[in-house]
Predict the 3D structure of the following.
Amino acid sequence: MSITEDEARKVAHLARIRVEDAALPALARELNGILQFMEQLNEVDVEGVEPMTGVTPMRLKRREDVVGAGEMADKILKNAPDAREGFFAVPKVVE
């Protein structure tokens, strides 16, 4: 499969990327290179290979799930643009 300049223009339009007409041949070549690489990857035999999320076997660092006092309303409300009586104050939207 080969990408033409018209197809490269369409891909750029769909990606919302402005590409000058002079740069379309280079974009088409790059897209063709990507497609050729994908065709090479399709030739690799992956039968029996387990899927993985990364190249190194690592466990995610986790913290203890501990219930805290949660008494930090003052700190949270300090960031609010308008707080009254210990609550966030928002504009009235229903009459």
Remarks:
- Strands lie at 83-84, 87-88.
- The chain has three helices and two strands.
- The chain has a mean pLDDT of 90.
- Residues 71 and 94 are 32 Å apart (CA to CA).
